[in-house]
Design brief:
Layout: H1 3-13, H2 18-25, H3 29-37, H4 45-55, H5 60-63, H6 68-79, H7 81-92, H8 97-130, E1 139-148, H9 153-167, H10 173-186, E2 190-192, E3 195-196, E4 199-202, E5 209-219, E6 229-238, H11 242-256, H12 261-266, H13 271-285
Parallel strand pairs: 1-5, 3-6, 4-6
Antiparallel strand pairs: 2-3, 5-6
Helix pairs in contact: 1-3, 2-3, 6-7, 9-10
């Protein structure tokens, strides 16, 4: 069954005259008649899509019957390096036919403008997660204590939770302290190399918050390596964004694994210097 016959079959089944279809897609009836008879080749892909829209059928029901698609795809690949890169990356990630179908379905359903908007939103989100210094987005000088003097873990966590409560009305310091201490009794958050990362989730917080303290004298934290702790990051995450909290914890753990990181932070003499050191360390680590 050649293309022209299929087109004529679909057109008559839709109850659309040759003259009306020609007018709706911006061609002459004579031209369209010759296409249907097979004396002229199928229209271009954009025109085929217009015809499919008027007939109320999927574009593929027409484009798949022509060699236009292969020709246009080849032309696209030759003229657009970005298309080649996409196909190369898709191949590297072993993108299957199902994934390509999902992309095609999304584009077809949303249209170019909405689809592009969705891609840009996704790109912004991914870029935010990958950009340098995400810890710097959550650590502010008001919640940083350099060379803090404390006698034990409880006193330290009381100071940190109270500090967060002063900056965030949604944060209840007393409740948070009880929860953090309970977690510490169950399993210490001393992750080694002189660093601890106690954490909790809190409903109502506008964003994840990190409080940071370096200690004038290291304290016992029942750390995994039995080393006393001199640097503590207290992470208060949003209740509805646990995955984001896990990402922050992972970054902190990665920094903590770097030899000398705790000692470098303890050498800082001001909150601003501490924040800057964390930002630079995180940037170099990622």
């Amino acid at each position: 069954m050649h293309f022209g016959y299929t087109l004529r079959t679909l057109r008559t089944a839709a109850g659309i005259s040759l003259r009306r279809l020609a007018k709706d897609v911006g061609v002459s009836p004579a031209y369209l008649s010759q296409v249907e008879r097979g004396t002229l080749p199928p229209p271009t892909l954009p025109r085929l899509r217009d015809i499919a829209k008027v007939l109320g059928v999927p574009p593929a029901s027409l484009t798949d019957l022509t060699d236009r698609l292969a020709t246009e795809v080849l032309k696209l690949v030759r003229s657009m390096p970005e298309a080649v890169r996409f196909l190369r990356v898709a191949s590297e990630h072993e993108l299957a036919g199902r994934e390509f179908q999902l992309l095609a379905d999304a584009l077809d359903a949303l249209g170019r403008k909405a689809f592009t908007g969705a891609l840009r939103e996704l790109h912004t989100r991914v870029s935010h997660e990958r950009r340098f210094g995400p810890l710097g987005d959550h650590i502010h000088e008001a919640l940083v204590w350099p060379s803090l003097h404390v006698k034990d873990k409880k006193q330290l966590l009381k100071i940190l939770t109270a500090g967060i409560a002063r900056c965030h009305a949604e944060f209840d310091a007393e409740t948070a302290l009880k929860r953090v201490l309970k977690r510490e009794r169950e399993a210490s958050t001393g992750i080694g190399n002189g660093i601890a990362v106690p954490h909790l989730t809190v409903a109502g917080l506008p964003h994840d918050v990190v409080a940071l303290a370096t200690l004038a004298e290291a304290i016992n934290f029942d750390a995994i390596d039995n080393r006393k702790v001199s640097v503590v990051f207290l992470l208060a995450g949003r209740e509805d964004e646990r995955p984001e909290q896990l990402k922050l914890l992972a970054r902190l753990a990665h920094l903590a694994s770097r030899p000398g990181f705790a000692e470098d932070l303890c050498a800082a003499r001001s909150a601003a210097e501490l924040v800057d050191m964390v930002q630079r360390s995180d940037r170099h680590a990622h």
